[in-house]
Amino acid sequence: MTTKIFVNLPVKDLDRAVAFYTQLGYSFNPRFTDQNATCMIVSDDIYVMLLVEPFFQGFTNKPISDAHKATEVLLCVSAESRAAVDALVDKAIAAGANSPNEAKDYGFMYQRGYEDLDGHVWEVMHMDPDAAGAP
Questions:
Q1: What residue stretches are annotated with the Glyoxalase/Bleomycin resistance-like N-terminal domain (predicted)?
Q2: CATH code of the domain containing 116
Q3: Do 70 and 130 lie in a common domain?
Q4: For 36-57, what is each residue's pLDDT tens digit?
């Protein structure tokens, strides 16, 4: 089995979060969905577990960060092209997200981001490996 990543994010309202991410084109695994959590499928190897805050709290002794006030993590996903970056971020904004920063163009990499309904920051980037040069 290849290594997969399961990111766990606390959400205040699971139905609201699911509706938001559905508008961005993500799907959910019904086998891992109930009133406390859902498994959002980002790709074949990336999953985001959206957990209502009381359920999330059961996995940690630390307080849950208010992502609207403090940055707990920056999530970054790649896109196939600059146009795909723009399309995803534009969908997020249309669905109620905020755009915390201007787009950044580094020549070899283009990046934009959004802050979801619970304040989690998602960066979306496209990198041209040929323009980036050899490592």
A1: 5-42
A2: 3.10.180.10
A3: yes
A4: 999 999 999 999 999 999 999 9
CB atoms within 10 A of CB 60: 10
Q: Are residues 69 and 46 in the same domain?
A: no
Q: How many domains does the chain have?
A: 2
What torsion do the CA atoms of 20, 22, 25, 29 make, to the nearest 10 degrees? 130
Each residue of 91-108: pLDDT tens digit?
Answer: 999 999 999 899 999 999
81 vs 131, more confident: 81
pLDDT for 132 beyond 80: no
Same domain for 70 and 50: no
Put simply, whether the predicted model's pTM sits higher than 0.85 gets the answer yes
Tokens 């577990």 sit on residue: 49
Query: How many angstroms separate the CA atoms of 49 and 37, rounded?
Result: 7
117 phi/psi in degrees, rounded to 5: -65, -25
CB 125 within 8 A of CB 85: yes
Residues of the domain holding 5? 1-61
- Give me the residues paired with residue 38 across strands: 50
Q: Which residues have C-beta within 8 Å of that of residue 90, sequence separation ≥ 6?
A: none
